[in-house]
């Protein structure tokens, strides 16, 4: 199967787009709701929790794991790829979502000024800055950490008036850094749920980059290029959902992120 890991439920916004593009494959999703959110945690904590999640997905039969979480991708992916896979899981693969997103932004920006909304850990890692700089060193990156957004989204408070006040403040802080930003990366998978609210406060000239469709396209291309992995993946369209938290509590929120109800979510 193809495994998806996230610190909570935001990765479901990626999974639903992947399933639209690649419906025949079997998928297994694991959300680490017990330890979410990751944004305020240390790099070492993020690595340890992410690695634990990846191990569980491998145990359940995943050949390939997607870290559907910007924080995990920025703080844990490289170590897992370099230190863990070669010795423990040489036949398995773990991929992140930052590089595909970083490749897209320079194609869109005309002013060469790109903004990023993300968690504290993703901003601190400077992962987007590093990857975009590799593509075009002339591009300037302006980042804004948004520590309150994920907890508010996970608590179902998107329609609360407080939410819009907080969101507007973060965007104001970002554009104070540079008023000529013309491309905005939503560097947290949770933010896919609030795209319309973000657009409400953006200047018309600004293009918004969300990750779902980008990752779906990238995964489709990856499987075409790696037939040795693709042929191992079950194609019976099964879906499994797991959480490290309390299943009954997580089940209530899943429909918001995934777009539909699921029959069962299990605790691990």
How many helices in DSSP terms? 13
Highest-level CATH class of the largest domain? Alpha Beta
When the domains are counted, the total is: 2
H/E element order: EHEHEHHEHEHHEHHEHEHHEHE
The helix content is 40-55%
Which blocks of ≥5 consecutive residues have pLDDT under 50?
A: none
Beta-strand percentage? 15-25%
Mean pLDDT: 95
CATH topology of the largest domain: Rossmann fold
Assign the CATH architecture of the largest domain: 3-Layer(aba) Sandwich
Q: Cα distance, first to last residue?
A: 18 Å
How would the global form be characterised?
globular
Largest sheet: 6 strands, parallel
Major sheet: arrangement of strands: 4-3-1-2-9-10
Radius of gyration from CA coordinates:
18 Å
Extended strand count: 10
Q: Structural class of the helix and strand makeup?
A: alpha/beta
What would your notes on this structure say?
- This protein has two domains: 2-96 and 213-267, Rossmann fold, CATH 3.40.50.1860; 98-211, Rossmann fold, CATH 3.40.50.1860.
- The protein contains 13 helices and ten strands.
- α1 (12-21) crosses α11 and α5 packs across α7 (127-135).
- It is globular, with a radius of gyration of 18 Å.
- 49% of the residues lie in helices and 16% in strands.
- The chain has helices at residues 12-21, 43-59, 70-75, 77-88, 98-108, 120-125, 127-135, 149-154, 161-177, 195-200, 212-225, 227-230, 247-258; strands at 2-6, 27-31, 64-67, 93-95, 113-118, 140-145, 183-187, 207-209, 239-243, 266-267.
- The two termini are 18 Å apart.
- It has a six-stranded parallel β-sheet with strand order 4-3-1-2-9-10, sandwiched between helices.
């Amino acid at each position: 199967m193809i495994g998806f890991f996230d610190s909570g439920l935001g990765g479901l916004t990626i999974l639903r787009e992947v399933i639209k593009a690649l419906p025949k494959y079997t998928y297994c999703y694991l959300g680490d709701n017990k330890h979410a959110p990751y944004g305020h945690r240390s790099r070492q904590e993020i690595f340890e929790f992410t690695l634990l999640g990846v191990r569980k997905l491998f145990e359940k039969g995943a050949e390939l794991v997607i870290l559907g979480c910007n924080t995990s991708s920025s703080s844990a992916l490289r170590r897992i790829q370099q230190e863990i896979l070669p010795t423990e899981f040489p036949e398995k693969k773990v991929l992140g979502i930052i590089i595909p997103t970083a490749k897209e932004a320079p194609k869109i920006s005309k002013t060469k000024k790109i903004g990023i909304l993300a968690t504290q850990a993703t901003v601190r890692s400077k992962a987007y800055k590093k990857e975009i700089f590799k593509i075009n060193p002339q591009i300037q990156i302006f980042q804004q950490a948004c520590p309150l957004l994920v907890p508010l989204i996970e608590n179902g408070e998107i329609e609360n008036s407080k939410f819009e006040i907080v969101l507007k403040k973060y965007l104001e802080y970002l554009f104070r850094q540079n008023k000529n930003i013309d491309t905005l990366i939503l560097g947290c998978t949770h933010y896919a749920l609030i795209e319309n609210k973000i657009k409400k406060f953006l200047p018309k000239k600004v293009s918004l980059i969300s990750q779902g469709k980008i990752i779906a396209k990238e995964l489709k291309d990856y499987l075409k290029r790696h037939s040795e992995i693709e042929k191992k993946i079950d194609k019976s369209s099964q879906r499994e959902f797991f959480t490290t938290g309390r299943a009954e509590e997580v089940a209530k929120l899943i429909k918001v992120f995934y777009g539909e109800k699921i029959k069962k979510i299990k605790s691990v």
